């Protein structure tokens, strides 16, 4: 068995690959947070809860309506997105004039409610969700056995992430969005419906969380607390990448996943802490994050 | 002279106090069933244990020496602070006389502190750590159903004897996991095997892939799962996904309940060897209990914890009826004097350190083709007599023993 | 920079000072007599610990205008330190509590030095992330015993003389600790130092232009707040004889935010009222299990949407408007 730095090569590569898979979820979630923060100036604490909701919607579809994985991959994000739009219209939009912290506190409350409700109904031990038949089995990569489904997760999330990046950075809709972020009054003067734009942006970002939830369902089981601890890591990633930076959040999300994988090989005890350590270092050297620009 | 008078006086006083104590406080015997009712140990204990306690009370006749018996239950969420606070309040405010079940070793250890401080009986069924009858033993505590030592002896020895002599552990990072890993490691080494390494995971993990990968990389013949409940089932499922068993390594689930086998399905679980204190399909008595239990629990068959809760509550009530005293130490002392004889255990006894010694069983999960249907899951390979299954009293580190 | 409650009244609540004294006196009398009124003393002690925690937290949120989402790490780490020093090193409870509070203050200084570079949301997220590091440290470090926590911490004897195993003794001990902590908070707010803090909240740039080194004031306030949170956590560990991961988890940080928000941030009595409501809710709703989370979430949402001044803040407004 070949060794790299005293660690068997298969273990190292394997952990890196697993890190990349985790990183895919980080990227999808931090991307959504970045969009919401960029547009609404709100840190969406409910993001983890909505990710979990996405997984549960997929589970409901399968168990009560017999709708399988592939339709759920489209339907669940739509449901979660619609739910997000309702939240934004009825509650969040009333807080924009106030300090941004109220948005954080409101979404924190929402997260407690959503997670509490699911917890009451389904306990915390998790519901199994089967891997779709087309993606069962796996490939032997020589250094490790890669379950096909996990490979699919990486591919799907990278496609969606860069699709979103393209939408925001390279299309007319994205141009409106970015302009509205820079100067709302001016964009409004051009006759663009900014409140609608904000609602759509929130709905879209939340739908991304729902999508991540469906992707996660077959791997992690559908569990009411699945988003709770993830969200804190994703917060740190968004801070590292630079609040509001789309590309920053994607790259940092994937990168942190890989770094975690490395840490798991060399110093497993620190794998949960390393992201916060990086955050502290980045903040000390570049307070606006790796990809962020100073904002007023 | 003066001294003698004082001594007589003190004796009289203590006699009076003793007489005042030897009765059933508040004219009611209250049983508190404390366990996990929403988390990963819900199925193996949870509402089933409450129901089992209720069955025991009904079968006993509903009253003890003419005094009512009441049952309370609560969810400790697997958190030691939550558990010990509930028990403290139960004893202080509700006047609970005996606490039962308490899976999750860390919670059981916390509860043991409170019950021994407040002279309340504690019948441990769900928790496994041997610390409960060693460093942390108490005169008010009985460890009834099983422990990590007996699991290690049963499963660990059997696997090493079959040639599985190099091990890697995936261990739940709390008292129970550590205890199980340690006890099993000792058994492996005593039988000539070796332990190549271990990795600790937090309680209630969802993703085991990175731990499994480390286990795979270790090259050990056997991957020992020193965890329980949905942690074990998740680890087994993901090991399947990553092709661990196909790769030539075998899995050893050191603690598995019949409900875990049920949730995994025989296709995944077949061939696993495990140790249990009770299997419902052993004889007419066990089947009779299981039938009554499953009638009340939507068809679920009892785990060893459920059976243990029934048996221990019954034994406690008999002891209390005998002495007419529901003080913790008094009741447990009486329990230790009487042998246990029921469907769960035959001629079993509770030792000075609080360990209830009874036979354990090494079983193998059936192949789907052998099983006649739901809950027909085990072949009993051998019976491990109580003396061999449990840590000898001479090795106990319990201060009560010496 | 907008601050959280630029318009919140900071004057002593409930109008005239006399009314305040009468109210405080009544509350003090009730607290002293409570064990004889048939209220479960452990519940009262828990309430007092959390009330002190919320008061300490309010010092940051209400008077400096900085939302920390990491206060659980001070509360929980102090609990661990106290538990360890009392159980393993054999310190008397008061020394253990002082050790816990000092460590919490030192931790607060480190947090403050790192986080003070940013404000508002950034500050909240950075404190949250740092607190998460403390959480994982608590999971790993041997002296905390990970998931098991430190159990069976002896209550010991105060100064080696008064046995705290007696319920009444420990109750009055906790009352005394609370009184000391509350007095420190009260004096801080009404000192020149407190005035500068409030000025920073209202208009930071102006304070800078007046020649104050704002960051020094903020770090000092944060350290004090952390130390007092530690005092609360340390005392709780003596009362419940346990220090566990629950105390350092971020949901605990959320709880203290809720108490302060509900009671009224920037008011002196608000956090106490908030703690009272939240702890009572948790206690009486314990039987309905996880509904507690849902109800707490709902209170959060209602607070943020409808009465952002909190119970005491709104009450003060009504009384003044009369």
UniProtKB/TrEMBL annotation, chain A:
Its main location: membrane. The keyword Cytoplasm does not apply. The keyword NAD does not apply. GO terms for biological process: amino acid transport. It comes from the Bacteria. One of its GO terms (molecular function) is transmembrane transporter activity. One of its GO terms (cellular component) is plasma membrane. The chain crosses the membrane at residues 12-35, 42-62, 68-87, 99-118, 149-168, 196-220, 232-259, 266-285. It holds the Pfam family BPD_transp_2. It is found in: Cell membrane. Keywords: Amino-acid transport, Cell membrane, Membrane, Transmembrane, Transmembrane helix, Transport. It is a multi-pass membrane protein. Belongs to the binding-protein-dependent transport system permease family. LivHM subfamily. This is Branched-chain amino acid ABC transporter permease. It comes from Ferruginivarius sediminum. The lineage of its organism: Bacteria, Pseudomonadati, Pseudomonadota, Alphaproteobacteria, Rhodospirillales.
From TrEMBL, chain C:
It is a multi-pass membrane protein. One of its GO terms (cellular component) is plasma membrane. The chain crosses the membrane at residues 20-40, 47-75, 95-114, 121-138, 170-189, 256-279, 285-307. Signal peptide: none annotated. It is found in: Cell membrane. Keywords: Cell membrane, Membrane, Transmembrane, Transmembrane helix. Pfam families: BPD_transp_2. GO terms for molecular function: branched-chain amino acid transmembrane transporter activity. PANTHER family: ABC TRANSPORTER ATP-BINDING PROTEIN, HIGH-AFFINITY BRANCHED-CHAIN AMINO ACID TRANSPORT SYSTEM PERMEASE. This is Branched-chain amino acid ABC transporter permease. The lineage of its organism: Bacteria, Pseudomonadati, Pseudomonadota, Alphaproteobacteria, Rhodospirillales.
